[in-house]
Design a protein that fits this description.
single chain; alpha/beta; Rossmann fold; six-stranded mixed sheet; two-stranded parallel sheet; globular; SGNH_hydro_sf; secreted; hydrolase; SGNH_plant_lipase-like
Length: 372
C-alpha cells in the first residue's frame, strides 16, 4: 500500500508540496515578531557594514582578526571589535538575531530585514573608488528594489499587503562620511574639491540624497532614520594628519560637513511636513553625539577619546588596524576602535541614548518612531 502511494506521488504533487512549504515559511517570516517592528532595512557605509564587502576586491574590508574580537561569530566583516550601532539598535527593537548582510540573504528571510551597507560607500558613485570596489547608495537602493520584487512573491502579488507590511518596518540610512573622507578632501584622487565650494558640494550631495531617499519612499519606506555625518574632523585618522595650532581637530572638515548636516535636517523637516505624505523621518544628530562623547567621554567611562584601540602611528590613526595586530588592553575604555570607527561600547551607548531619548534625535526618539 505504501509503495503504491509513493508511485502515485508524482512530479505535480512534489511541486505542490514544495510551494506550500515555501509559502508557509514566508508567512512565518512575515508574521510580526514579538519585538516592536517586523523588519529592519539598513543602508550605509563601514560604520554599519556587516559583511557585504567580504568578497569584493577592496581595501575596505574587515573580515580578519582582530576585527570582531568581541563578536560572538568572530570576524564577520564588521568594522569594529563587536556590535555595530545597528546591531545594538536591532536588539533594542526586539530582534533575537542580527540583521544579515544582503550579500548572503535571499528568500523568505528578506522579510525580516536586510543590511545593504558597504564600506567606503557614499552618496556619489565615485566616492570610495580610491579603496576599490564597493556598493554605492544608488546601488544599495537598487538592491532594495530587487528585494521588494522578491518579497512581492511571498505576498502572492498582493501589493496592498506588502505596502502595509513595509510601512511598519524601520529603515536606517547613514551616508555622507565617505563623500568627504574619500572624495572631497582627497584632492590627489578626486577633483570635487576644485569643482565645488563647500556650500556647493553639500548642495549637490543633498540633491542626490533627496532623490535616493525619495526612491526608498516610492519602494515602500515610511519610517526612516537618517543620520548626520559625525565629527570626522576629530577621528584618529584626521588627528594623525592634522597639525593645527588653534584646535585639536580639523575644523575645516567639520565646517564642511556641518553644511551638509544642516541641509539634511531641513530635508527631514520638509519630508515630514508633507514632502513625502505618510512618511515619518527621524534625524539622528551623530555630529552632536560624537562631539559630546569626545568632550565628556570620562562621564561615560571612556578614558581614551583621541586614539584608536587598534592601529599604527600617531593616535593609532595613520594606518588602520592590521591583520592579527595586538589591540589595546581594555577595549571598553576606548571611544574609537580603529582610525575611523567607534568601539562596540560606544556603539551600544549611542544606540541606547538615541532609542529612548530625544537628546540626539529629531523630532522624536527612535522608540517613538516604532510606535507610530
Amino acid at each position: 500500500m505504501m509503495r503504491g502511494n509513493m508511485r502515485s506521488f508524482g512530479a505535480d504533487s512534489v511541486l505542490s508540496v514544495t510551494l506550500i512549504l515555501v509559502l508557509s515559511a514566508a508567512r512565518a517570516f512575515a508574521q510580526p515578531q514579538r519585538g516592536l517592528v517586523p523588519g529592519f532595512f539598513i543602508f550605509g557605509d563601514s560604520l554599519v557594514d556587516n559583511g557585504n564587502n567580504n568578497r569584493l576586491i577592496t581595501l575596505s574590508r574587515a573580515n580578519y582578526r582582530p576585527y570582531g574580537i568581541d563578536f560572538p561569530q568572530g570576524s564577520t566583516g564588521r568594522f569594529t571589535n563587536g556590535r555595530t550601532y545597528v546591531d545594538a539598535l536591532a536588539q533594542l527593537f526586539g530582534f533575537p538575531y542580527y540583521i544579515p548582510p544582503y550579500a548572503r540573504t535571499r528568500g523568505p528571510a528578506l522579510l525580516r530585514g536586510v543590511n545593504y551597507a558597504s564600506g567606503a560607500a557614499g552618496i556619489r558613485d565615485e566616492t570610495g573608488n580610491n579603496l576599490g570596489d564597493h556598493t554605492s547608495m544608488n546601488q544599495q537602493v537598487a538592491n532594495f528594489g530587487m528585494t521588494v520584487e522578491e518579497m512581492r512573491r511571498f505576498f502572492r502579488g498582493d501589493n496592498n499587503s506588502l505596502t502595509s507590511y513595509l510601512s511598519k518596518c524601520i529603515f536606517y540610512s547613514g551616508m555622507g562620511s565617505n563623500d568627504y573622507l574619500n572624495n572631497y578632501f582627497m584632492s590627489d584622487f578626486y577633483s570635487t574639491n576644485h569643482d565645488y565650494t563647500p556650500n556647493a558640494f553639500a548642495s549637490v550631495l543633498l540633491q542626490d540624497y533627496t532623490r535616493q531617499l525619495t526612491q526608498l519612499y516610492a519602494l515602500g519606506a515610511r519610517k526612516v532614520i537618517v543620520t548626520a555625518i559625525g565629527q570626522i574632523g576629530c577621528i584618529p585618522y584626521e588627528l594623525a594628519r592634522y597639525n593645527g595650532n588653534n584646535s585639536r581637530c580639523n575644523e575645516k572638515i567639520n565646517s564642511a560637513i556641518s553644511l551638509f548636516n544642516s541641509g539634511l535636517l531641513k530635508l527631514v523637516q520638509n519630508f515630514n511636513n508633507g514632502g513625502l505624505p505618510g512618511a515619518k523621518f527621524v534625524y539622528l544628530d551623530s555630529y552632536k553625539s560624537s562631539n559630546d562623547l569626545s568632550l565628556n567621554g570620562t562621564s561615560s567611562g571612556f578614558e581614551v577619546v583621541d586614539k584608536g584601540c587598534c592601529g599604527v602611528g600617531k593616535n593609532n590613526g595613520q594606518i588602520t588596524c592590521l591583520p592579527l595586530q595586538q589591540t589595546c588592553q581594555d577595549r571598553s575604555k576606548y571611544l574609537y576602535w580603529d582610525a575611523f570607527h567607534p568601539t562596540e561600547t560606544a556603539n551600544i551607548l549611542l544606540a541606547k541614548l538615541t532609542y529612548s531619548s530625544q537628546t540626539y534625535t529629531y523630532p522624536m526618539s527612535i522608540q517613538q518612531l516604532t510606535t507610530l
